[in-house]
Specification:
Blueprint: H1 2-23, E1 28-30, E2 33-35, H2 41-50, H3 60-66, E3 67-71, H4 74-77, H5 81-90, E4 98-102, H6 104-116, E5 125-129, E6 132-136, H7 146-154, H8 172-186, E7 190-192, E8 197-198, E9 205-207, E10 213-215, H9 218-228, E11 238-241, E12 247-250, E13 257-259, H10 261-273, E14 278-281, E15 285-288, E16 296-300, E17 305-310, E18 313-319, E19 334-337, E20 340-342, E21 345-348, E22 353-356, E23 359-361, E24 368-371, H11 383-386, E25 392-394, H12 396-405, E26 411-415
Amino acid sequence: MKKYKIAVIAALTIIIVFILYRGILGNTKINGVPYNLVCSEDELNKRLNSTSQKAYFKDDKLEKEFVKYEYDVKDIVEHSTARKFLDNLTGKRYKVKYKKTFLKDEFKEYLKKYNESRTESSDAYIYKDGEQYQVEKEVQGDRVDENKILSDIDNGVIIDLNKYIINPSVYEKDLDNTAKEMNVYNSWSATYSNGQTIRPDGYTVTLNDDNTLSINDNFIDDQIRNAVASYCTVGDGINFKCNDGVERIVSGGTWGTNVNYEEEIAYLKDCFNKHENVENRTPIFSIEYGEIGNTYIEISIEKQHLWYYKDGAVTVECDIVTGLPDGKRDTPTGVYYISERIPGKFLVGETYRTWVNFWMRLTNSGVGLHDAIWQHAFGGDLYYSKGSHGCINLSYDFAEYLYNVTYVGMPVIIYS
């Protein structure tokens, strides 16, 4: 019996000590903060405010500085000891009501001063150093995005300032290839066999705001004519030994070489945009007539005569009638080539529409060689009164013969 009483007393003692431990010694927690029966209202408030709830900031210092809590702990403190014992025995948990205040204006001022003491980030950019484009490296700063932080606070995001650093938006690695491409465009050239070179000007490559490139290849259009001028020999004077043995300089006409600008420009632009340099270039020609050779037609306006040369020797010759020398219908002088042969067509002008049987064109304006059955004689001074509108009038038989031995591209030299 005595042992039973001792056991009961021991059990009761353990229970009382456990209750005292939970209630008096501080095993109880309110909102995660240790609390016991001897804790005053001020002490509990102090404890609650000293423990961050991480409502706004990851950094405890910022949380304590700019977030204030007002707890209603009076009711808990004023609980009777008996009630607290009962609550502890039943495992009741206290939920303390509180008012939370974010000191927004003070925090905004803090952010302003925070950024003033830090470095601003800046983007990498491309600049021109002499003839080369280089990349200036970005600057990594440590300023934070104030507006983003305040917006996220309003949306309930817990703030870690390190995640709001304003980084550069453009890095050196983003521009390396662009700068290289700009240098490739800028170093392009096209050199002709005459020594002339076409190169990009200062407006060829433009870097846009989004760091893409705009390419202007109009410099090719601007420079092409000067570069290939020496290849354009149409109308240039040539030294020509006439039938009378006199050497004359005959200029004008359609004979020579002319560059096909449209095709040549298209070719160069294609090479430019493919980054392919051009060297020792001979341009594309629209017409390409070089040496006169030994087979040609010679016409003297003064003598009103025509000679046909075959392999350097006169094969046939005849008298002719050229244009009326009134300043409007004169036969043009120069070195030409037959550009068209038609066995019969109407010649049409403002005051005439005449059929010819053998047509050999020399100019785009309508001058050519043809039969003129309306002429009753040829040669001498007839052209002063019976002169044509600029064409070289031939007898029917000679026109037929000449038509049969000529070809498109045959040279025709006309001089006064």
